[in-house]
Design goal:
This protein is of the alpha+beta class. The protein has one helix and four strands, in the order H-E-E-E-E. It has a four-stranded antiparallel β-sheet with strand order 1-4-3-2, with no helix packed on it.
Length: 79
């Protein structure tokens, strides 16, 4: 590949991928329908200085089930 095309491809990839990644990790009541790769509407109000009403992508989801008690840890990323 000519050097100009390689440079152009590299610059295009940097523009697409080189962004700040904003994430949120939270513990919640378990919902067995949620899995990594799903998107969820996250609504958080009056949590200190944070207020959210936004779609977020579930990067990872760990379900914890002990008897009848079901919780989950969600790692979310802003979409």
């Amino acid at each position: 590949m000519p050097e100009g095309k390689v440079r152009n491809l590299a610059e295009t990839l940097l523009k697409a991928k080189n962004r700040l990644k904003r994430t949120l990790t939270l513990e919640a009541i378990g919902d067995s329908s949620l899995r990594a790769g799903n998107s969820v509407l996250t609504v958080i109000e009056n949590l200190g200085d944070i207020s959210l009403n936004q779609m977020m992508l579930i990067e990872s989801c760990t379900h914890n089930i002990k008897g009848s008690h079901h919780t989950m840890t969600l790692n979310l990323m802003y979409v």
